Amino acid sequence: MVRILVVEDEAVLARALRRGLQAEGFAVDLAADGETGLEAALEGDHDVVVLDLMLPQRSGLEILHEMRRAEIWTPVLVLSAKDSDDDVTRGLDVGADDYLAKPFAFTVLVARLRALLRRGAPPRPAVLEAGRLTLDPATREARLDGRAVELTTRETALLEHLMRRPGEVLTKVELRDHVWDAAGDDLNVVEVYVGYLRRKLGKGAIDTVRGSGYRVVGR
Ligand code: CA
Predict the structure, then answer these.
(1) Mode of pairing for the β-strands spanning 213-216 and 206-209
(2) Which of 82, 150, 176, 198 has its CA 20 to 30 A from that of 23?
(3) Are residues 148 and 127 in contact, defined by beta-carbon separation less than 8 angstroms?
(4) Which of 133, 127, 140 is CA-nearest to residue 218?
(5) CA of 19 to the centre of ligand 1 (A)
């Protein structure tokens, strides 16, 4: 039986989720605060985790961060009323697999969970490598030739997206949609941030492929 961990401190919503998910044939464990949620998540015996961000004791982001640091790759769907761009990016930065803003339709949640369950929990490399660069998405630590480089959240997200596919050309549209999560944003924002990264990592860190997009040099 598929086992789902729901970490949610709003009792009414948590109970409704349990009832609904059980009716869909899932086994459901509830955790009502961050500490309990973290303990349950670290046991690693769930197939998927539904994780609220704003929780007492430990935030959802802390839980996610600790899970990934412990190399627990259970898919995580972040659930939150906070829908600012930064929280989403931060959640995806520390290893969330999907994101749903409250209020949401239960059927949408179930569809997303089923999609995550189909994908399973492929082990992800703890540290990404491309050429002279390394990036640990969990700690957001970037290194160039072994030397630590300070990056902002957004710079880290952009670099991570490029480094997950070394040698591949990624278009500006694709980068904007994944890293900024707001299709309305100007494409210039991608250029600007590529510029920031080059300033910190050296001109050669990211190639411009004229008319197509950007890529980081492969291994
Ligand atoms: Ca909450």
Answers:
(1) antiparallel
(2) 82
(3) no
(4) 133
(5) 18
Six-digit token pair at 172?
């500006």
**pTM exceeding the 0.70 threshold for the entire prediction:** no
Angle at 10 between CA 5 and CA 15, to 5 degrees: 60
Q: Write out 131-173 in H/E/C secondary structure.
A: CCEEEECCCCEEEECCEEECCCHHHHHHHHHHHCCCCCCEEHH
Strand 133-136 with 141-144, pairing = antiparallel
pLDDT per residue as tens digits for the range 93-151? 667 888 888 889 999 999 999 999 988 766 666 688 888 899 987 778 899 998 999 99
Residue pair 115/108 in contact (Cβ under 8 Å)? The answer is: no
Which ranges of the chain have pLDDT less than 50? none
First to last CA, the chain: 40
Ligand 1 centroid to residue 130 C-alpha, Å: 38
Strand 206-209 to strand 98-101: parallel, antiparallel, or no bridges (unpaired)?
unpaired
Rounded distance from Cα 166 to ligand 1 centre (Å): 37
Residues in the chain: 219
Q: Which is nearest to 52 in space by CA: 77, 35, 83?
A: 77
In contact, 30 and 14? CB cutoff 8 Å: yes
